[in-house]
Amino acid sequence: MIFIDSWVWLELSLEGDRRRAAGKVVQRMRNEGGVIATTVLMEVGYRLRRQADARRANRVLAAIRRFESLTIEPVTTAIALDAIEIRDKYYERRELEVSYADAVHVATAVATGCDRLYSGDPDFEDIDELDTVIVN
Predict the structure, then answer these.
(1) pLDDT digit string (tens) for 33-51?
(2) Using CA atoms, how far apart are residues 114 and 8, in angstroms rounded to an integer?
(3) Which fold has domain 2-134?
(4) For residues 87 and 77, what is the distance between their CA atoms, to the nearest angstrom?
């Protein structure tokens, strides 16, 4: 099973330069199964409303929620507490500027037993908790 960061969904939805590569990640999810945290929905919806419009954001969110091979995990207390540790670990080391949402994504991926996390965000490159793939 794989975790799909909001970057993948945004790249597809906004037709970015790496749209084809993001599409391959979604295809992999269809074959292996995938996970996102509810915070991915929040990030995707917010950014699409800012960069496109509310109608497009709502269509994309509905499409994401329809994937049978995708599990949308709530942010539980355990995940939130793990995310605090992840955020604190990388902030203090100043190796990565992992955001709170990204820390939740890593914690969710680990908690749900994902093999890898896919993103285009280089902040995930040196995360020790999980294998990450930076989509090019």
Answers:
(1) 999 999 999 999 999 999 9
(2) 16
(3) Rossmann fold (3.40.50)
(4) 15
